[in-house]
Request: fold
Amino acid sequence: MYIYMGHMDYKQTKPYEDWFWEKNRINLKRAFVSKVEPDSSSILLDSGERLNYDELIIATGSASNKFGWPGQDLKGVQGLYNYQDLLAMETSTKGIERAVVVGGGLIGIEMVEMLLSRQIPVTFLVREASFWDNILPKDESEMINRHIRSHHVNLRLKTDLKEILSDKNGAVRAVLTGDGEEIPCQFVGLTVGVHPNISFLKDAGIETDKGVLVNEKLQTNFSNIYALGDCAQLRDPKAERKPIETVWYTGKMMGETVAATICGQPTDYDPGIWFNSAKFMDIEYQTYGYVSAQLKEGEESLYWESEDGVRGLRIVYDSTSKGVVGFNSFGIRLRHKVCDEWLRKKTKVDEVVSNLKKANFNPEFFKNFEKEVQSQFQSTK
Amino acid sequence: MSKEGFSISLVNPNAPGSDLVQKVGIGISALGLLSMLIGATGPANQDPSFYFWTGIMTSIVGFSIYILRTFLHKTESQNNNHIFNSSLTARGIAGWAFGIFLTGFYIVLYWGPSSYWDNAALVTMFDPISQTIFGFRADRWFLYGFIYTVSILIMGVRAILKYRHDNYQIIRTCSVMFFQLGFAFLLPLFMKAMSQPEFYFSYVWPLDYDMLWPDSVDGLMNAGTLALWLLIGSAFITFIATPILTYFFGKRWYCSWVCGCGGLANTAGDPFRHLSDKSLTAWKIERWTIYPVLLFIVALTILLWVNSALEGDIFGGFSHQLTKGYGFFIGQLFAGVIGVGFYPLLGTRVWCRFGCPMAAYLGILQKYFSRFRITTNGGQCISCGNCSTYCEMGIDVQAYAQRGENIVRASCVGCGICSTVCPRGVLNLENGSTHTDRENDNPITFGNDGVGLKF
Reply:
């Protein structure tokens, strides 16, 4: 995303300098794996080369979803997951007049932002009634709707894709929506979720469902084969957690867990309090703990929004014990360690609200939001 | 685009690279430069006012129009769009041309023959403003001071607009504009006009390297009471105020709030800040260049005093050579020609990072005795690389952030841009309550309950 928008070049997106791998005795090999053969503890590369292993970690991430739409494989139609996708997007969006992005999630909105950076008008088709409303509560979701529109995006809610239409050269010419409207465009971003990228494991004997099935040590049915990140599916996830979590943070934690195990310290995967983050154009989003789109039975919440409608804070708490369950913040930076501690201790919402300053991670001289939240909390009590 | 009916846009959503107002602004500015060019070939000596207004002021006004228009319609997330695609800011042809132009300007400024500068029409053009405000004729140093200050002011306004969502950047930019205009331009020149020493308040020893040398100290001591107080004041800043302020706020109080070099880097240099080298090799070079410069200037200053006390017994005439050599190689070649001339090629803080003895001194204080740190927010880093890319000091901020580690580095000038460009709210400049709790080296992702490290 940042490469496409010209904020960074490829080199700067690497997490380590190139010497890192060799210095740490990691043999970085660029190839595709065509087959895994657990019986002989080896893998076969597309080059025909065979590599033997003592322990194998499968961390192949996701692949973009496509739901069998007519025209989904036309030129100029793609998802956005890896560097190859980025290069394809660079080529397919040169000099075009309009783009359509299908699917209202985190990749979708990033793709919209990317296209806008090239002054390409975008129509954003979102199936749901409001942006990302299966995750965000109504207020937050509406804030993001407004924000998307303020960036001159043609946001089309409750609109799904029916068909992608071709021109005579096999490239996209337009999309047809569920209600029969034809929207001309020369590029279609399909950002309707991802699925574990494990098709190369077919017939390998490794048990899979949607993802590679793993136990609490992230081991597959072969004790020397592990899977982690987007492609792993936990057989027995913790309460409140999903079997497949396609976020960076859990992938990182899984990596640390497997590393500990392989280095002789058998360790169960135990992600603590859930957290995540995103950025919707200008609005940063952080979440800690569990805030669901609709309040659960026995939960209450406090929601504050700034007058200009671009900053917001939601605190969800248990209606009986008053202990806090989750935070959503928009345009406000919260301190991870403080939120984490409050959530672990189930600190009472009164105490959290009166100590909000401790969780304020905004840079110096930023306008305080605590007072407004506190007075709103007092008045609704 | 007739199907555009459902857009709720108030302005044209297909805004091209530059609109009419931007083009007009740049056009006016170009006319101003043309007039300056013509004036500089001689005519400005006959009619300085004409070329001051049609040249200097016109280009300033035109450029301001362009800046205002450009940044008023950009939102926060669009600020860095296409920096790596633009020839000027991505070391393309325009970047090289601008870098060579700047470097050439510094060479001519420092080492051009007096025969040129003493009668240069380019300088005469600045007479109207010099005469009006200070009552003396412009010389090449007035020209330089004026351009330097105007660059900080105009590009300061640009920085304020660009970072207008971030109060830290707004206030900090106002501060460098204030110190440059007041303490490094108006005050020293007023003092010169009143036959007092031309004293640059915002530069202190060891950055202002000859301030505490015997000759300049003698000069100040013989120049009246005011000068004596200035001398005492600047020694106080160097030896007492600096350690105290740095303890509480880090080196940023000076490097990115007061100093003119930092001021220019953070305003005029802002479009080039990402060009600094982030490699480990660059960090190694930095440590081998900046501390020797500090050592050298400290040793030189001490030796000069000993020499002067012994009435030249140690060096004799050689001390003159040494001071001249430092002035030439460090003061002019390093700080000016390379430090600023190479902005479009090496980034903005080359001097501050590799050479400035004041930064070295502040850095040692910051690393070992300061409450300042950049806090990493738990496990929130996504390793996107924006912080490292936009760090003008070439610190690989991401290397720390992705390990959940706070950043405590001697070189950090506390400009705060890493925090500004972070898309996930991971970095924050903080003055803690003590200097001992700053470093937290535990690379396991915060919140990962399963894994503990045995130390």
User: Anything to note?
Assistant: Chain A touches chain B through 63 residues (CB under 8 Å). Chain A has a mean pLDDT of 95.
